[in-house]
Write a structure and sequence with these properties.
Blueprint (H helix, E strand, L loop, with lengths): L1 E5 L4 H17 L4 E7 L14 E5 L7 H11 L6 E4 L4 H9 L5 E4 L12 E3 L8 H13 L14 H12 L7 E5 L11 H14 L4 E4 L6 H9 L7 E2 L6 H10 L2 E5 L2 H9 L3 E5 L4 H4 L9 E4 L25 H11 L4
Parallel strand pairs: 1-2, 1-4, 2-3, 4-5, 5-6, 7-8, 7-10, 8-9, 10-11, 11-12
Length: 341
């Protein structure tokens, strides 16, 4: 069986599809697996060693007919027996149709008319909320298979680990490593820097040899610099803008715990088995929280009465998610997981 997976974005959503694809591999298998992915995120697929081919989706260039034609030609270089659209949007539905596969699978409640492009569509069973569980349920229904949700066997290549080790060596000491993701794609999901800084300082007081590093994109350098200056005892190393996707994954795999907003790196860490202490306010952990065994991750929920608001900007116009949350509560969850991995 030749399989095409359509899941171009975003970073966390791509990672959410790994367990479902792994279940298909374990129970049904395939002759080849091709994955449609946004070019900027393509490197994340290298974590999963069973992908035979990537088809890069040029989202920013699709206003040009030549780009669309080139994408369709690349997509059709192989004939597919089945297409699974985990995205559920108009563009992913069109991609499924462009593949010319005789069997096109997707969610019945997909948005923007995407179900019109499928030959089969399924609705998630009652009670299933998390994105990972929904993807797994789609595979179970479409292929009539059972099986537990397992963490996909992701791999860190030696060259990625070597680059990560160079960064880790720049941190003083040999104590446990705390990674910190203080940014996200939505401003409303970012808890205040004071919350992160005070938590790191409290952890550093309890574990004097702890090592901390800050992750982020080039646009996050300034915010991470501010955080580093606010945590003189923890002395976090600012790696924002200094790592590619592969090195980021290796650093997360080498960390003992991740303190994070709801973010793409949170999902990478969870998929790699790194415990997360996740701060949630604007979004719902039932839908997009760190996925794993009970008790492996910790979620700190905002006490704001409007949480989750699902808005990109705080409707109250202030950093209110952390209000009434004792820093000691967050630090304790980190300390409980710092030697767990």
């Amino acid at each position: 069986m030749r399989v095409l997976v359509v899941k171009p974005s975003s970073l966390g959503d791509v990672v959410h599809a790994f367990p479902a694809v792994e279940l298909l591999r374990q129970k049904v298998g395939w002759e080849s697996l091709t994955w449609v992915i946004n070019a900027k995120l393509a490197e994340i697929l290298d974590l999963y060693p069973f992908i035979n081919r990537k088809v890069l989706f040029p989202r920013e260039q699709l206003t040009h007919w030549s780009a669309l034609r080139g994408f369709a030609a690349s997509l059709r270089q192989e004939k597919y027996d089945v297409v699974i659209d985990f995205q559920g949007l108009l563009r992913s539905g069109v991609i499924s149709w462009l593949s010319r596969s005789p069997r096109r699978i997707g969610f019945k409640d997909g948005r923007e008319g995407s179900p019109w492009f499928y030959t089969e569509s399924y609705i998630p069973q009652n009670g299933i909320l998390h994105a990972v569980a929904k993807n797994v349920d789609l595979v179970r229904q479409a292929f009539r298979i059972d099986g537990d949700v397992r963490r996909a066997p992701l791999r860190i290549r030696a060259e990625w680990q070597a680059r990560a080790d160079e960064h880790l060596a720049a941190m003083q000491g040999e104590g446990p490593v705390v990674a910190v993701a203080c940014t996200s794609r939505w401003r409303s999901k970012d808890w205040p820097l004071t919350c992160f800084a005070q938590t790191l300082e409290l952890v550093a007081q309890q574990v004097p040899n702890v090592r901390c590093w800050l992750l982020g994109a080039p646009a996050d350098v300034s915010r991470c610099e501010q955080l580093a200056a606010m945590a003189p005892t923890a002395r976090p190393l600012n790696l924002a803008g200094k790592t590619d996707m592969a090195t980021l994954a290796a650093l997360l795999a080498s960390s003992n715990v991740l303190l994070t907003n709801d973010s793409g790196p949170m999902h990478i860490a969870a998929a790699l088995g790194t415990p997360c202490v996740a701060l949630f306010g604007a979004t719902s952990p039932e839908k997009t929280g760190p996925y794993g065994e009970d008790g492996w991750h910790a979620v700190i929920r905002s006490r704001c009465p409007q949480s989750p608001c699902f808005q990109k900007e705080c409707p109250r116009g202030e950093d209110c998610c952390a209000q009434d949350i004792p820093i000691e509560v967050i630090a304790q969850q980190i300390l409980a997981r710092i030697y767990k991995k």
